[in-house]
Amino acid sequence: MPELIKVRPTKIELVKLKRRLSLAQRVQKIVKDRLSILTMEFLQTARDTVEAKRKLLDESSRLYKALSIAAGYHGYIAMEKELIATEADLKVTAGSRNIAGVRIPSFELIDNGKPMRGYNLVDTSSWLDRAAQLSEESLRAIVELAELQRNFELLAMEINRTKRITNALEYIVIPGLQVTIKYLNMKFEERDREEKARLKRVKVLVARG
Amino acid sequence: MPESLQDEAKQSPYEKMLQDCLRGELRVVNTGLPQSQKRQSKENKLFYLLNEKYPHVVCNDGSTHLFKKSELEYLASMIDADEQKALPLPMLIELGANQSEAAIICEGNIEEKVISKALNMPVTCQEKRIRIYRPQLALLRRKFKTTTVYVFSPKIVA
Prior knowledge:
The complex is a heterodimer. Chain A is mostly helical. Chain A has one domain: Helix Hairpins (Orthogonal Bundle), CATH 1.10.287. Chain A is built from 3 helices and 2 strands; from the N terminus they run H-H-E-E-H. By secondary structure, chain B is an alpha+beta fold. Chain B folds into 2 domains: 1-30; 31-157, no CATH class. Chain B is 48% helix and 18% strand. Chain B has helices at 3-10, 13-29, 36-40, 46-50, 69-78, 81-86, 109-119, 134-143, 154-157; strands at residues 56-58, 64-66, 91-95, 101-105, 125-126, 129-133, 148-152. In chain B, a hairpin with a 5-residue loop joins strand 3 (91-95) and strand 4. The chains are: A mainly alpha, B alpha+beta. Chain A binds chain B through residues 5, 16, 24, 26-27, 29-34, 36-37, 40-41, 44, 48, 93, 95-101, 103, 106, 108, 165, 168-169, 173, and chain B through 7, 15, 18, 21-22, 25-26, 28-32, 54, 56, 59, 63-66, 68-70, 95, 97, 99, 134, 137-138, 141-142, 145-146, 149-150, 152, 156-157.
């Protein structure tokens, strides 16, 4: 049962309450629309996250296979010697974007066109090339997953917050205002009826006198 | 004491908190829009953004909205160079009173071409708006995550 707001039973208060109710209803419309957009984005992000995770797992398993074959072919120590000079800095562009008022991060691996391979191509086999190529793809998948995972968390938090506001509006604020408006209307009607009865009584008394 | 302050003093703390929340909510929804003067300038056209090192636009709240290069390149592959110079980014998706629909605000025919190619179906521009349904909106957002932005139109609250 919605709670009655304590107000003085005057016409001015009634007008104020009606104005407040219309504002609350308009805001509820916006918040509901925002919630539906956030939910749509959240579901899309969830689907993308699952896909990205599966992709990363596939890439990683293929990478480890390729790496073990390369290690078996060259020998672990020889391969490590070749790879020690190939370390390269990763360049990731990090920024942010906005989805219906939620700031979410955006990452992108910078691809400068040349592969991150610095080892000697003469002394190594195509197995190592394959492992290097797969590791680049894995890195791309990791960056993509990092972005999606964070977006997923932020959107979920915002949906929770927005849902609380929607519920508060739908179940507390708007019903409270409606009940109070109804109560005031009934009170004014009652006052009118009393007034009419009083006038009739006065009329009778005047006629008798 | 002014009347508005008297009103606030009479409100219960719970109701006051809700009012603050709602005020914040209204402010927050459109903060991600690009600044109006920037939208008219040529720096936010696809062609010029493609040549930027970090393609971005400045939003209403002063923050930056970063575009993904891969997305810009995908967009560029759909249209020719002249059209790239006329396509403003981000594309604005307006949410109206009808919850099952959304509208893409377009200034020319380029948006129409891009959207129809992305959705793989013909779309028409009427009164500077391309109307699409929610499932199509999800598809569009999946393809253009950073190059589209939501607008909560004042018509919703009217």
